[in-house]
Amino acid sequence: MIVLFNSRTREKEPFDPPDRRRVQLYVCGVTVYDDCHLGHARLLVVFDMVVRYLRYRGYGVRYVRNITDIDDKIIPRAQETGESVASLTKRMIGRFHEDQAGLGVHRPDEEPCATEYLTAMIALIETLVERGFAYPAPNGDVYYRVERFPAYGALSGRRLDELRVGSRVEVEEAKRDPLDFALWKAAKPGEPAWASPWGRGRPGWHIECSAMATTLLKTPIDIHGGGQDLEFPHHENEIAQSEAACGAPFVRCWIHNGLVQVGAEKMAKSLGNFLTIREALGRFDRETLRFWLLGSHYRSPLFFSDALLAQSRTGLERLYLALRGLGDAPNESDCEEIHPWLGRFEAAMDDDFNTPEALSVLFEMAREINRVRDRKPAAAAALGVGLRRLGGILGLLEHDPDAFLRRTGPDADTVWIEQRIEERRKARLTRNFAEADRIRDELAGHGILIEDGPEGRTLWRRDRQ
RNA sequence: GGCCAGGUGGCAGAGUGGUCAUGCAGCGGCCUGCAAAGCCGUCUACGCCGGUUCGAUCCCGACCCUGGCCUCCA
Questions:
Q1: What angle is formed at CA A459 by the lines to CA A456 and CA A463, rounded to 5 degrees?
Q2: Nucleotide nearest to A37 (CA to C1')
Q3: What's the pTM value of the predicted model, to 2 decimals?
Q4: CB atoms near residue A134 (< 10 Å)
Q5: CB A60 within 8 A of CB A297
Q6: Nucleotide nearest to A40 (CA to C1')
Q7: How far is the CA of A368 from the C1' of B19 (A)?
Q8: How many Å does it take to go from CA A426 to C1' B31?
Q9: Beta strands in A341-447 (DSSP E)
């Protein structure tokens, strides 16, 4: 039985979707006005892990993650770069997909763009106006009347009066209540605009998720995810919009991933302390990043530093070193050996996706492989198969071990390395250890580590940098 | 100021009312021509103060500190 921490109740709850074959999952994605950074990478990898695990557990999952392609930030950015909004967002979506693939993140089943759902959004707003939950203002905007929705604040644990007291929301003349939020924004000159019953304009940010989630998924949605920073007001507003319009519960379980931190504060574009995904992929390989991202629980803050990423690389290498040279599992029956390990891994993951604990199971499997690899090679190979299968749920251990450890790339120095090793082998045969050590040092100078195995065989791998 | 979350060994990071997390780093041993990798062992961690309990890092209360949200934000 999987249990999930539901942000709304702040408790772990049994995960019991009404239809196991069609779990409804919606995640708030990214706004495409700039390259994504490691904070977005965490969101992408965490929910990639969630989907992989649920599918491993036999659930059918329909995974929808939106792309915001019309927004207050996109418009000025397009003006800066001197291109149209459509051109900017198309370009950024392309780069986003490259980043996603670079991280080894599977594509969701649907990646709807906001601009493709104007009709649904307008219909939703009309319903809200009809039902008295929204009102058109004289300035052409349409606002949601927060006070009309009694459950407003339930998700994030806020009360309207408290919000008003501490409110930093700018007072807009047109709003009846400072907490009311825009469903529709009247077009300003030069902005992208769509026709609507309230004149030309564009949608507010929150309405797109309500429209796309209710259009593409069956409500109540089983799991709705997003970054912790979206809990208020974005998700609160989504609930208010969706439930007021449909008159039914919107989401069963809310899942929020913690934020990536740099030093003492969160990584954010507004703070300028971010590393983009593509920059990160240039410095660390994808699995090192995933290992780091999944090495702490998804709800905890996650600290970024070069030293922590180096630790992740080292840990991952330990797993690959255990896998190296194992060969395939001989047959199915030998795979029986892995069942207890599967059980422990699943117990960890069933408990609100406890990936750190799941990783510890992987490390213990690696140690067991190292213990038995000489005495019981078949058992070691079977364990290796299990280790790779479990690693795959986290998007790890998908490389060939030697390729990973050697970082085999386009560089053609492999031949040169092999020649050095052969020379050294001859030197060792004649017990010319001074020459053997000299060659080893020479290779080390090129970042190549040598490991002598039994029967004169020598393995090599690349040093971590 | 309000609302949340959290403070675990050198670092990272799980977890539990009374045996071990795990990884990295360090130290000792085995293995090795020497190394590396690996295995074995080791390094007596749970912010502070009270309380409950036979017993608390784990439960309760106060305090201190940190982060997030309260404005765009994954």
A1: 145
A2: B74
A3: 0.95
A4: 28
A5: no
A6: B74
A7: 21
A8: 23
A9: none
* Fold (topology level) of A306-403: Four Helix Bundle (Hemerythrin (Met), subunit A) (1.20.120)
pLDDT score of A166: 58
What number of residues does chain A have?
A: 465
Q: Is the pLDDT of residue A321 over 90?
A: yes
Across chain A, mean pLDDT equals 92
Query: CA of A87 and C1' of B43: distance in angstroms?
Result: 59
Buried/exposed code over A167-189 (b: 16+ C-beta within 10 A; e: otherwise): eeeeeeebbeeebbbbbbbbbee
Task: Say yes or no to pLDDT of A394 above 90.
Answer: yes
What is the distance between the alpha carbons of residues A33 and A224, in angstroms, rounded to a whole number? 24
Task: Classify residue A11 as exposed, middle or buried by CB count within 10 Å of its CB (0-12, 13-18, 19+).
Answer: exposed
User: How many angstroms separate the CA of A282 from the C1' of B40?
Assistant: 39
Sorted by where each begins, the domain ranges of chain A are 3-262, 306-403, 406-462
Task: Give me the sign of the Cα torsion angle A420, A421, A426, A427.
Answer: positive
CATH code of A3-262, in short, is: 3.40.50.620
Q: Using alpha carbons, select from A192, A181, A224, A206 the residue that is nearest to residue A121.
A: A206
Residue A409 pLDDT:
65
Q: How far is the CA of A151 from the C1' of B3 (A)?
A: 16
CB atoms inside a 10 Å sphere around CB A281: 17
Residue A434 has pLDDT above 80, yes or no: yes
Rounded CA-CA distance A460/A417 in Å is: 9
Contact A257, A299 (CB under 8 A): yes
**Rounded CA–C1' distance between A358 and B21, in angstroms:** 11
| Parallel, antiparallel or unpaired: strands A458-462 and A260-262 | unpaired
Predicted-complex ipTM score: 0.95
Q: Which nucleotides of chain B are near protein (any atom < 7 Å from a CB)? A: 1-6, 11-15, 21-25, 32-40, 66-74
At A169-207, the pLDDT tens digits run 555 678 888 899 999 999 999 899 999 999 999 999 999
Query: What pLDDT does A402 receive?
Result: 93
Nucleotide with smallest C1' distance to residue A305 CA: B12
Closest nucleotide over all strands to A366 (CA to C1'):
B38
